[in-house]
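If you are new to this repository, start here. Below is one unmodified record pulled from the training split, so you can see the exact layout before writing a loader.
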Amino acid sequence: METDYITIKHGPRFEGLPSTIGMFGAIGCIIYGSWLLGEDVISALVMYFIAIVCAFIFLDFRGVDIDFKRSRIRQYRNMLMIRHGKWEKLSDFNKVSLTLEQFKTMSTSSLISQSFNSKTHDSYFVILEGEEGIIPFEIGEYESHSAAKSTMKSLAEKLNLPCEDLYGERKKKAAKVRSGRKKR
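And here is the target side for that same chain:
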């Protein structure tokens, strides 16, 4: 095996209560530190340091770690440069899948004007699936089908598991139905 450990980074998420508190804490500490700067430089520097700590909490970095040596996987959150998350056994999973989820979103202006115009946003998810009763494990969310498909195939190869592109299957069936309509 090429490597004993793989990390798939998803970057900052900016969601959840800790992230919100971190954002407001960082802004508040920068403002208060700037106000203190003329009077007490040491206190201002302390406030700037606290602002940096709050910024790391606000960013809320996430990803997936796969440890082949110990045959385990986890989704992690990286706060203050420390990763934490619950490890799960790789042996619980027997297939890598790709699915499509469509989300409807509304802008703030459409909510205020009560026009309720929504936009559909496609997200492609790569997941590990197991037997009945095993909760699927989300590897990642991707904006394009090709990126998700590439990750799915690479992961299936590294884990020596079968893979299934559920979106691709659905797309092929829809194309077949459309081509059948054209012939009539």
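Two things worth knowing about this chain: The CA atoms of residues 74 and 87 lie 5 Å apart. The two ends are 53 Å apart (CA to CA).
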